[in-house]
Design a protein that fits this description.
- The protein has five helices and seven strands.
- A seven-stranded antiparallel beta sheet has the order 4-3-2-1-5-6-7.
- Strand 3 and strand 4 form a beta hairpin.
- With 226 residues, the protein is of the alpha+beta class.
- The protein is 36% helix and 23% strand.
Length: 226
């Protein structure tokens, strides 16, 4: 009887099909992982938007727009305009208002449109200058004012409409009432009249019918509550 010798396959050849399958599986796995990473990166902005959606919308109404002026910021273009018409123009008052729905961030920073009253000694008139929310001044009226009013020098005006001063004191005192009366409005008025001993800031919370619900006054030179 004769035997035929059969040469066995090399180990490498036996394993090659298995190695190829492993390589294919690994490659497919890598492709899947890369696709997942790309998908996550692309989706992150959308996910962030979805996760913060409701809170972001709520907070968007509470941001501060620095394009809207405080009283002292608005005063600069107002006095520049009116003193181009009468170099002796004197500040009599400044008034700003916040109406429903009140942006508490804007209120706290004292930013809104402002109306300034100036006495014009050369023509014996009282002029109203409006500085709107875009910081543009406009003389809206002039009326005869034969008797010169007694006015404090506005150079002593130190306290602005917002920040850690009058508005802070107002919100500490009247904030609860404002929360309970969401349809109310806030008025802030600076007066330089010598009928008061000081340049005076007066902050008022008013009902829709104009009833004063809460108010705070302070010295516009020192910030002391009066």
């Amino acid at each position: 009887m004769s035997f035929q010798y059969i040469q066995p396959e090399p180990e490498e050849k036996k394993k090659s099909p298995v190695n190829m399958q492993v390589v294919i599986v690994v490659v497919i796995g890598l492709v899947v992982v890369v696709c997942l990473i790309i998908g996550i990166v692309v989706a992150l902005p959308r996910l962030s938007s979805l996760l913060s959606g409701s809170s972001g919308e709520a907070a968007s109404g509470e941001t501060v727009s620095y394009d809207i002026p405080t009283a002292r910021e608005a005063y600069v273009p107002a006095v520049t305009l009116i003193r181009s018409q009468d170099a002796g123009a004197q500040l009599a008052s400044a008034t700003g208002a916040w109406t429903p729905v009140i942006n508490r961030a804007q209120l706290g920073s004292g930013r809104t449109g402002w109306t300034f009253a100036f006495y014009l000694p050369s023509t014996e008139q009282m002029a109203l200058v409006v500085v709107d929310r875009t910081d543009k001044p406009l003389v809206v009226s002039k009326e005869p004012w034969g008797t010169p009013p007694g006015l404090h020098d506005d150079q002593n005006w130190q306290i602005d409409s917002g920040g850690n001063s009058g508005m802070e004191a107002f919100l500490q005192t009247c904030g609860g009432t404002l929360e309970a009366e969401p349809d109310s409005r806030v008025h802030a008025t600076l007066t330089t009249s010598t009928e008061s001993q000081w340049l005076l800031w007066q902050y008022q919370l008013l009902s829709p019918g104009g009833v004063v619900l809460c108010e705070v006054s302070l010295d516009a030179s020192s910030g002391q509550v009066r």
